[in-house]
């Protein structure tokens, strides 16, 4: 993974290799500016040559993929076509906490209703909340806000000159071919990729009839077209070659007459909405407006093109590698790089009482946020000389007023570590970090 570099005045320069950063730190020519993502600041250098970097995003309902790439553009002498080769410098996956926000708001609404009925009678009211055009729920607004925050943060740490995001944009067909019209314009060159990707997410990337995974899957009609079935996505599923040939033109009820439970599951799942896809679709335009407000050129590309690029360059499917394949990608450099996992943890809560599942208090939190110079969320290093937790532990700390802390490490939670053994690495910023190994093989 490349190391981000700042000059003496705190302005971003070109990232360097880990070896180069280690030499600069050992020789005293740089200091550590930030641990996650690892950034150094030069002590004497002000200027330096920078190359254009592009920050790519693959927004998802739970995880957003981030890829900071250096693009090398070459022009074909014969055709005059511009080819874009991407060299990834930083790969990261941002895990949102939209589900926890939704659950917290649901619980707060339940408490509010209870107080209203308990304290005094209030007449029923409805339609007393006005929502402006383009309103998003707090859990959805959080997805846009976290992506915006990390775009702003990476722009401060690296010379980002362009942005790319995955979004549906059919006008790209007309830009490539001004004479395109009719059905050809509506379908586009990547017809089938969007529907297939939707079905893969909906059916869990396995055969709907036998449950087999990691095999080539075929798009199959639940109700055969020979018996009046349509091409609607609610009538489409995925099946392996053996099940598809065995089913043939039979109705699904006849084919699974011996397995009524599996038949019922398929019929229910066929008409069930894809909640995650709805969340991504509702935040797509809001995120695009946020990125466009930065003043940088924004490239919007469809999910079908992302999948096409991934298959073309034989890259496995992960969120960060999907971000790497967003937009025009004619060639890819070394994508086998470690991944920085970022988890949105929040900055704490105003709630001072812990409740059990029945709503009764089971504990109280102190009003003081910092104890012994530490607060929950700080990244610390604990060197324990003896005892059951002997060793070195690095991770996110959870403080207590008595001075016995817990540390969340990649291997698990280490409990009851004295504050005297802890040293601060990075102040809490609302996120938890850990490094994941690079993906080496392509997923089936």
TrEMBL record:
Source taxon at top rank: Bacteria
Ranges that cross the membrane: none
The keyword Oxidoreductase appears for this protein: no
Keywords annotated in UniProt: Endonuclease, Hydrolase, Nuclease
InterPro entries: HNH, HNH_nuc, NA-targeting_endonuclease, RNA-guided_IscB-like, RRXRR_dom
HNH nuclease domain location: 194-245
GO MF annotations, alphabetized: endonuclease activity
One matching Pfam family: HNH
Name this protein carries in UniProt: HNH endonuclease
